[in-house]
Amino acid sequence: MSSAATERFDTDTPPPYQPVLLCHPGRTEPVALDEYEYRAWRKAQEMSPEQVIEEVKGSNLKGRGGAAFPTGLKWSFVPKIEGPKYLCVNADESEPGTFKDRELMEIEPHMLIEGILIACYSFGARTAFVYVRGEYRTAAQRLENAIEEARRAGLLGDYQILVFRGAGAYICGEETALLESLEGRRPMPRSRPPFPAVEGLYGRPSVINNVETLVNVPHIINRGAEWFKALDPKIFCLSGHVNRPGNYERPLGSLTFRQLIDECGQGVHGGHQVKGVLPAGASAPILTADKLDTLLDYDSVREAGSMLGSASLIVLDERVCMVRAAARMVEFFRKESCGKCTPCREGTTWLHKVLTRLEQGQGSEADLDLLLSLSDEISGKVLCALGDFAVSPVVATVSQFRDEYLAHVRQGRCPVGSWAE
Amino acid sequence: MAEALPPVTVIIDGQEVRVPKGTLLIEAAKKAGVEIPVFCYHPKMKPVGACRMCLVDIQKMPRLQTACTTPVSEGMIVHTRNDRATAGQKAVLELMLANHPLDCPICDKGGECPLQDNTFKFGLGVSRFTEPKRKLAKAIPLSERIVLDRERCIMCYRCVRFQDEIAGDQALAAMDRAGTSQIGVLDGETFDSPFSGNTIDLCPVGALLSRQYRFRARPWDLQRTPSICAGCAVGCNVELHARDRALQRMVPRENMAINNEWLCDFGRFDTLPLGIERLREPAVDGQPTSWAEALESAAELLRSGPTEVIVSPSITNEALNAATTIARELKAGLGVWPATTGQVRRTIQDLVTSKTIILLGLDVWRALPVLALRVREALKAGGKLYFVGAGANGLWRDTSATFATVEELVQALTHDGALPQPISILGWGADALGDELAAEGMVGSPATAANGAAMTGLPKATFEAPVQLLVGNEDWPLRSSASARIQLRWSAAGDAADRPSIVLPLAHPYEQTGSLINLEGTVQQLHPGAAAPAAAHPDWLALAELAEALHISAAPDMETNAALA
Amino acid sequence: MNVQDQEAAGSASPLSAAVEERIRAEVGRYPQRRTGLLPALKIAQEETHFLPPPVIARVADMVGVSHASANELVTFYSMLRTKPLGTTVVEVCAQLPCALRGADELLGLLAAALEIEPGDTTPNGAVTLLRSHECFGACNRAPMCVVNDEYRENLRGKALEAFLAEVETAAGLEGQTS
Fold it and tell me: A14, A231, A308, B431: which has the fewest C-beta neighbours closer than 10 Å?
């Protein structure tokens, strides 16, 4: 916790956190140009591009799309050669339980634009594409309006920011699939090497950054790397069986799962108990209630046996049927698989078929071993992370909730009814 | 690409091998004699790492890696058959076979199927898949040539990538996504590309198959004979496949100097004498007769009045030699028809390495299809293509600029300096422009017929003589009532009204020996891949016998030709 | 054929001149024309509501790609449709966060109100009910659905009742639920 946050004498109750990113809580209309100062953009242009990269490196900012790759380091990979280079902003937010980039684009479009400009400046891109998922019509529209506002005010100079809308494909959130989609091709991830920094969009050096990553950049420039490093703010998306689902910004490692659920989410809905929390949407193993005191940061969650990823926390209460939950999540991956590589294409289909049978009470105990064996055949053998994510719900629930699976097998049906209030 | 990269040492399954730095591991393994199974990888196309069949265990890398996308580095230690790697191979095959239909007994690919072979060598013996398999359309006629079975497809994308990277027309693409992904064309359209047949060779399963060859034979029954395609002047190298001496299909042979490893559909499918009525015996005035009698009647007719000897530009050199001798001895006219002859200097290899290629109204895509693919190789290496004229240009997707006249081209492209060499120029007027630009590549107006390059000196036939000796299987112009014809051909003669006085049956080019000269001047040998009808003779033999009947000494080296048979 | 020939050839275009102008402008925005293929298909779909082969072919010709390549995108992306749907499309999010807040029940209520199964269209062609496997990013306002590309969120209690009534009206089935 930074010293800046503890100015009061009363140390029993820490002062309420002052959000840096979602700094207009409760707002529904976008922050307009006349309410936003492009201070960091002006300051960055007085630094050298190398200094900008050093500052971001020093801040320890990590990618907020889920991979947590150091951002400054990523920018430094772009070779200093002539010819076009591109920034592609990944606004394809499609992981179940994730809605932070949506709010950022709908309310703080100028913060994003400023981050985009500074990023482009740092590694020599003149054109940025913002790849917005097709379903986010409001976000895309507000962003386009803000870009036009900024352009007319002369803030863009000779930089160009193009909003490109997707058309319904989760895989486009994968870096290289996003590039393929931008090139007008079937969005299937590419093999690496070569890496996008060297051969990206149109074969040119490119950087792909998540929306949330970029909105941190103006603050790093304004207030310095050291300040940011100590604060390390992250937006946590909280959904599922909590009283107040929503986006909550807190410093990484400043609170536990339990504290987020109780203080921000105002506890579990209807007086129920937490059965488990998915920390990263559908893509990481579920953490059972005994792990609720784990701190919300990448290392702690990894030590607890899962991954924080994009920090999309889905809370499940004790009434939830884990078999049905697993089947629902695997259905997502099955249908969103692009189909390029054999293990994901065939494996997610097979997993889902077995899970569906089990959910309907038509499975056997041998099916559980089959599920684990198939997960092993898929994991680590696929071209991109989707295949690896897809086995997460299977492995985590079969190993931690085996009794529920067996109940389906023995009773020949799902023992649980509705999950709703 | 200019200098050779320094070699590195890699150890694959305990074997040391030295290869240039940056070589793909899959190629390094080949050099080491280690077999890594593949499906989507093909050495002539960019690797995609889609099928995952080539997963191997590389020391110090936590995940298995696809050998086809991994460049080697110094000291890399690779295991392709240890527990981790074989677990990966079995996993990929089990998943690939999960929805693959058990069609082997009725699938043409059986016996030459990489999926069968890899499963046998690298897969599990049984599958645990007991769910209902996905149902997709089977035996869809994608075009007149190709039939598609969607259930068999393993989505290796070789066909799609071929049409994209090699042909450049993107005539085939993927459809849908996830578990129901398939390949196809727009609803209501066909797989329309002059190179579609190559996807049959490339497809590692029985998904894309030849309609012409469907259900005709099993690969282990076939006799295979190397020969040359008789479709055009490129002279693609081929292999003729016959069953019990009956021709079944033709596939390409690799020759990097000529056709790379491709064929065009016209050559592959349409030059075969399948389903075409054959001329089976000699006939005089429509009456079947013996060779001896027919030759005697022909000799008499030829001596009876002014004669023109007219040759097709697709007959062998040996036949041309005999025809020339006959014409000389008879003091007859000698002409070629159609006049699809021509000549170029330099070779196809020089075209492939050109940096500037200019087509003077020549639609290479249609006239010499595989040559268009070789042009595309030059473009991929940084060359540029220009077209002069208003006519059709099948390479329009790859053409940098089109000009109305040569003068416009020269003005537009040389005002900044010289065009990058080597420069290749093809079409009418190529030589003049070649001189002007000091072109160092392939220059000239190429022949387009199979042996047209051998007949550049021949004038175009006039068809005016009262007696005409027509040699070769062309669609000859109608005979005037004042003339009499002797035809040597392999397909049944045409309309009765145009019935020649005398016909002599020939073997098809794929049923005989003989030599052809391709557009760049390379002499290549035909070999018989199937038996001709009993009474049909090779073209050079028929003419030698005719010369004998005329008491002319025109016999080519019979012994040599017999030995080549 | 050259690109221009491709564009000009054939009979009357299945697209209006205004839409073709928008497509040309869109394709011209990008460093490479092919980037405009997906946006062009979406622009065409705005007018024709779904993308039958003649429309796909026309867009392909205008952008300068093969018909098969355009078809590849159309059949891949969920938001591009190859079959006609009802005038009003109601797509219910059924992914986990919404399912936890009653999405399956919402789907059931809508199916009952419309008297159709998810995936079908009412007999009069007015309303299509779809179940979506994807997450729409509205998990904090669950359950929800997308009606003709517009988000309709927080469908609980009174809001749910009003929504059901609205959907029934759209389908011409007023007053069917209490």
Answer: A14
Q: Please give the average per-residue pLDDT across B186-193, as a whole number.
A: 97
SS3 at position B559: helix
CATH architecture of B104-210: 2-Layer Sandwich (3.30)
**Local structure of residue B459 (DSSP, 8 states):** P
Neighboring chain A residues of B100 at a CB cutoff of 8 Å:
none
For chain C, how many residues are written? 178
**DSSP one-letter code for B179:** G
- Indicate whether this complex's ipTM tops 0.90: yes
Chains linked to C by 3 or more Cβ pairs within 8 Å: A, B
Fold of the A37-228 domain: Rossmann fold (3.40.50)
Helix (H) or strand (E) holding B242: strand B237-243
Considering only the beta carbons, identify the residue of C100, C135, C146 that sits closest to A240. C100
DSSP state of C146: E
Is C142 a residue whose pLDDT tops 50? yes
* DSSP secondary structure string for all residues of A243-296: SS-EEEEEETTSSBHHHIIIIIS-SBGGG--EEEEETBTTSSPPEEGGGTTSBS
* Chain A partners within 8 Å of B174 (Cβ): 186, 339
Which residue of A335, A341, A373 is in closest CB contact with B52? A341
- B95 inside 8 A of chain A by CB: yes
Taking the Cβ of residue B155 and every Cβ of chain C, the question of whether any pair is shorter than 8 Å is answered with no
Nearest-angstrom CA–CA distance, B492 and A128: 67
Residue in A closest to B69 by C-alpha: A191
| Cβ neighbours of A168 in C, within 8 Å | 77-80, 134
Handedness of CA B127, B128, B132, B136 (dihedral sign): negative
Helices (H), B248-363: 265, 291-303, 317-330, 348-352
> What is the band of B416 on the pLDDT scale with cuts at 50, 70, 90?
confident
CA B96 to chain A, closest CA, distance in angstroms equals 6
Tell me which chain B residues have a C-beta less than 8 angstroms from the C-beta of A169: 177
User: To 10 degrees, the CA torsion angle through A245, A249, A253, A259?
Assistant: -40
Residue B531: its pLDDT value, please? 96
Sign of the dihedral defined by the CA atoms of residues B271, B276, B281, B287, in that order: negative
Give the residue with greater pLDDT, A5 vs A132: A132
Please count the residues of chain A: 421
Q: What is the mean pLDDT of chain B?
A: 94
pTM summary value: 0.94
Q: What is the pLDDT of residues C85-139, one digit of tens each?
A: 999 999 999 999 999 999 999 999 999 999 999 999 999 999 999 999 999 999 9
- pLDDT digits 0-9 by tens, B99-147: 999 999 999 999 999 999 999 999 988 889 999 999 999 999 999 999 9
- Return d(Cα B470, Cα A3) in angstroms, integer: 102
What pairs with residue A47 in β-bridges?
A: none
- Give the residue on A whose Cα is nearest the Cα of B90: A377
Architecture of domain B283-339+459-564: 3-Layer(aba) Sandwich (3.40)
Q: Provide CB contacts within 8 A for B385, sequence distance 6+.
A: B357, B358, B359, B375, B379, B395, B398, B399, B400
What phi, psi does B19 have (nearest 5°)?
Answer: -140, 160
B518-547 confidence digits (pLDDT tens): 999 999 999 999 999 999 999 999 999 999
Fold classification of C88-171 is Glutaredoxin (3.40.30)
Q: Where are the domains of chain A?
A: 37-228, 232-317, 322-411
Q: What is the count of residue pairs from A and B with beta carbons less than 8 Å apart? A: 96
CATH 3.40.228 maps onto chain B at 343-446
Burial (CB count within 10 angstroms: exposed 0-12, middle 13-18, buried 19+), residue B382: exposed
The pLDDT score that the predictor gives to residue C5 is 47
Across the interface, which of C66, C70, C75 has its CB nearest the CB of B176? C75
Determine contact: B52 vs chain A, CB below 8 A: yes
SS3 of C118, please? Answer: coil
